[in-house]
Amino acid sequence: MSQPSVDSLYKDNQPWLFNWLVKKLGCQHRAEDLTHDTFVRILQTQYKQKEFTIEQPKAYIRTVANGLVVDYFRKKSLEKAYQQALNEIPELTQLSEETLYLLKETLEQLDRLLERLPKRVKSVFLYSQLDGLTYAAIAEKLGISLRTVKRDMQQAYIHCLTFSWSEDSE
Amino acid sequence: MNSDCPPNKIITEAADWLIRRQESPLTKQEQEQFDSWHDQSKDHQKAWRMAQTLSRSFQSVPSGLGNTVLKRSQKDRRQLIKLLSGLLVVPVTGVIAFKTLPVSNWTADLSTATGKQKTQILADGSRIIMNTHTALNILFDDHLRQIYLIEGQIQISTAKDSLSRPFIVTTQYGQVEALGTVFQLNQLSDGIEVSVQQDTVEVTTLSGEKQLLQAGQKAVFSQYDISHPKPSHTADSAWVEGQLIVDDEKLSHVIHEISRYRHGWLRCSPDVANLKVSGVFQLHDTDTVLKNLANTLPISLVYRTPYWVTVDKPN
C-alpha cells in the first residue's frame, strides 16, 4: 500500500493539529483530547473502508477535527439548555438519576439526528413528535399548507431513518 | 443487501406508513396491507424497527424538557459559529453567518467555502470538481463507489474501475447512477438539476421514478418526479472555467447566481429585476462583475457594507 501509515500521519500532523485545536477551543486539555479523538476517528474509518486513501492529509485531518469541534460545542450548548430545563421545570428534579441520565442520552441522540434538517422541517417535525400536534394544527401554526407539512414530515422521517440505518449494525 | 447502504425505497415506504398511521388509525384493510409490506424482507423489518425506536425516543422525552433542549435558540448557534470561525470579523446577522459557514458542512468529507472551487481526484481515479459552497461525503467500499451530495454543485468525470463497481451520487431527493460519464449535479431550492456532458446517467427518485439522460440533456428531479429532459448548453458548465455565461436572462437571476460566489447579502430590487442581461462574467471577482453591470445597465449599486449590497434603480 502506498498509503502513509497512521503512525507517520500522526507524527507529521499532531503538532499543528494540537496548536490549531488550542486556538479553536482555548483550552490545552480539551485540545489534547480532541487531537486524540481525531486520530482515533481516522483509524476507525480506515479500518472500515478497505479502499480508503487520504488524498490531502492536512485538509482531511482538519475536516475530521472540525467535525469534532462542532460536536463538542453542540454538546456544550445542549448541556446548558438541559441545565436550564432542570432549573425551570421542577417536576424533572423528582425523576431518578438513572432516568435523567437516560433522558439526556436520548436528547443527545435526537439532537444529533435533527442537526442537519432545514429549519422549517425541524420545527414541523418537533411540533408533531414532541408536542403531539396534528398536521392540520401545525399547518395553521406555521402558516403553511397541509401538503407542505406532509412533505416536511416525510423528509424528516426519511432523514432520521437513513441516518440511523448505518448506525444500526444488527 | 449491503447493510451499510440504506435502501431508499424501503425507507421512503416506511416514512409513508408512519405518516398514514399518524393521520388516522388504519382500517382493517390498510392494516393487512401494512402487515404484508412489513413481512416482505429483513430490511423492511429493520426499517420499521428503527421507525418504532424513533417514535419511542420522542415519546420518552417530557415535552417541556424536549422543547427547551431540542428547540434551543439559534442565538447559541450563532455564538458557536462566531467562536469557530476566524473569518467573521464584522458583526453579521444569523442568515449571513449561516451562509458563510453552513453548519451541516463542517462534518462533511469535502467542502468548499463561498466563492471557492476545488478539484479532487478520488481513489479510483474519478475526478470531482466542486463549485462554490458545496459539501459532500465519499463512501467507497468493495461493492459501490458512492458520493453523498449534501449541498452545492459538482461535476464528475468517472474513471473505469478495476473492480467494476457502480458509481452513484446520492442526494436527499434520489440518486444518479453514472454509466461511464461526465455529468453535473446542482442542488436547487426544491430539487436537483442533472446535466450530462458525456454518455448516459440514470436518475432514480426516492419514490422510485426512473429516467435515463443522454449526453447533451438535462432535467430536474425532486423526491417525487423528474422533469422532461431538455437540451443542456455549454453555458451550464461554464462555472468549471470560473465563468458565468448568460444569454438574455433576467437581472434578478444573474444577481442570484453571482450571490452564490459572494459572502454576505446581495439583493436585487424588484424595480430592476426584469432587466435583460447577456454576457460572460468572471466569477472570481464579483465586485468587478457588479461594477461592469452598473456601467452597462440603468442600475445603481448601494453598498451598505462590503457584505451588504443592493442592486437598485438609478438614484
UniProtKB/TrEMBL annotation, chain A:
Picking any one GO biological process from the record gives: DNA-templated transcription initiation
Q: Which Pfam families match?
A: Sigma70_r2 (PF04542), Sigma70_r4_2 (PF08281)
Q: Where is the RNA polymerase sigma-70 region domain?
A: 9-77
Q: Which GO terms describe its molecular function?
A: DNA binding; sigma factor activity
Annotated keywords: Sigma factor, Transcription, Transcription regulation
Q: Which PANTHER family match?
A: RNA POLYMERASE ECF-TYPE SIGMA FACTO, RNA POLYMERASE SIGMA FACTOR FECI-RELATED
> Which family does this protein fall into?
Belongs to the sigma-70 factor family. ECF subfamily.
Q: What is this protein called?
A: RNA polymerase sigma-70 factor, ECF subfamily
Automatic annotation (TrEMBL), chain B:
Q: Any idea where the FecR N-terminal domain is?
A: 13-54
Q: Name one Pfam family in it.
A: DUF4880
Q: Where is the FecR protein domain?
A: 109-202
Report a single Gene Ontology molecular function: sigma factor antagonist activity
* Protein name as catalogued: FecR family protein
